[in-house]
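Why do we care about 3D structure at all? Because function follows from shape, and shape follows, mostly, from sequence. That is the central idea of this module. The next example makes it concrete: a single protein chain, its amino acid sequence, and then its structure expressed as tokens.
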Amino acid sequence: MKKWAFVSDFDGTISKKDFYQLVMEKYFPEGQKLFKQWKDGFIKDIEFLAKVFSSINQDEEQIIEEILSIEIDEYVPTFIREVQRHGGNFYVLSAGTDYYIKHILRKHDVENVVIFSNEGEFREKNVFMNIDQNDWKYSERYGIDKSKVIQKLKGKYETVHFIGDSEPDSHPAAFADLTFAIGPLQRLLKEKGISFVPVQDFSEVASFLQKEGFLE
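And the structure:
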């Protein structure tokens, strides 16, 4: 068994803005009505994202340019390399799509990171998600079941750390050995009675893991 893994949500955790927010601001302002329906629970997360991602109507070059404009926590590339240098494996676990995640990680020279996300592809001037309902990690609501991914990784590693910031992350947090919570996830985990370490960014996570002996 390998020693440990660090698993991170992407949008709002590694990145400072969700990709869907950028798309709505620039190309799909009429999506605000859809956003309210989603937040009120009338449509599933995956239905909301699929509609937003397929409402961009731009050439791929323009879409990639927008993706690369998304800011990330500046400490993340260093953090990932530190985890890897200390024998850990780093995973991205996202209910968005790997289409934009791959571009952003490549921009920041991040290597050897496995991405668990909904598969995405560019076609017809938009980003479409290929959802396989027979996949072991399929979720009807999110496209990807984050809890199943964490549970599977726990079968491979002695310790699995997780970090997230929002509602979809409250589910896998129940299965991780230790969860770091950013922003709204802190309140959600308190309400669920799930223990967590509150943080604002990855430099705070690094400090905690240094004290715990993972990044000595």
